[in-house]
Amino acid sequence: MVNEDFLTMFHRLTSVGWAEENGVNRLALNEYDIQARKNLEGEMRAVKADIKHDDAGLIFGTLGSGKDNTAIGSHMDSVPNGGRFDGFYGVMSGMQLLKDLGSTLKNRKITAIDFTNEEGARFQPSLLGSGISTGVFTKEFAYSRKDSDGITFEDALEKSGYMGEEQNRVKNQDISRYIELHIEQGPVLELENYQIGIPKGIVTMVVDNISFTGESNQAGPTPMKVRKDALVAASRFTVAVRDIAKSSGKELTMTIGKINNFPNAYNVIPGKVTMNLDTRSPDKKTAEEYSKMAKEISERIASEEGVPVDFKNQWTTETTLFDEDMRKEIIKSCRALNLKYKELYSWPGHDAQYMNRVVPTAMIFIPSHNGRSHTKEEYSSDRDLINGYSVLKRTVENL
């Protein structure tokens, strides 16, 4: 009955902002995100949870009493044309724990959390809500972030009705520990036939901005030998960083996922190309080393093509290592439930990496079918959803 209740709630609430033809468009604090938040708070009120908001718009639903407080959460905002499972699974699991354990709590509390703007799809950078709530970002910085329409994060918060109090931030509450249940967003668990993943931590991410500046000119009469084509330089760079990552023999990924070509007309030689390079590794030195190598490659290609390059670091995160004692408790739960588990690193970022700065933190993964995520094809089976929730529930009970 509990399993059916959880699945019914999950599938009902994740339908907000979903369309079969293009997936979920529940960007932070847009109409769909606000509706999902209202639905979540409706579930919280039904179990008589104490609901609070902080000045980053986080939603906290708490049951119980005493100083020992286990927080469970994730986010409900999505990327454009995203899937139904990323983030939402963790929030619904926290909500279900309030239902399942709320009446049994004595001298302890459980808090379900929905973090704001985890994805960074509307307001950059990502993890904006958890960053404010844990003190990583200043309010002035975060509130000044603008979306593509020029709306600030502060204005969106005010309009949404989720502007809360600074005193309700994570770092100002009596939260004892934090667990985030999430889909893997990669293929490893499914390919290797594991039912549960237990992240050791989250890898280092180095994000660089690169701009190649050439000369725009008419495509027809400009001889090939005198062209200064920014897109050619950018294309060579894209292939080069792919090749050094593939041949590195290290735990490493390098991705160019965003590129802008100017003026982007079929009959004009590209005069400028801007792009982002995302370099990740569990070892921070490796990530930084390969980012430096990419810079050297860009300068060599720029010289050969006669197009100046500007290579700047946008941001770098530290490798996050999760609490060892909590990971051991998750392992015990997997063994007790006879579920096959694998310890691994999380390659995407999560709110857990900022929560880890203020309280002991751990994560639990379930398989993602075909490793798909941030797309409407994102999928995890009902069986996997229940397996993950069962591990979470048992772990929280033991803690």
From TrEMBL:
Transmembrane segments: none annotated. Residues 200-302 form the Peptidase M20 dimerisation domain. Keywords: Hydrolase. InterPro entries: Amidase_Cbmase, Bact_exopeptidase_dim_dom, Peptidase_M20, Peptidase_M20_dimer. Coiled coil: none annotated. GO terms for molecular function: hydrolase activity, acting on carbon-nitrogen (but not peptide) bonds, in linear amidines. PANTHER family: ALLANTOATE AMIDOHYDROLASE, ALLANTOATE DEIMINASE-RELATED. This is Allantoate amidohydrolase. It comes from Ferroplasma acidarmanus Fer1.
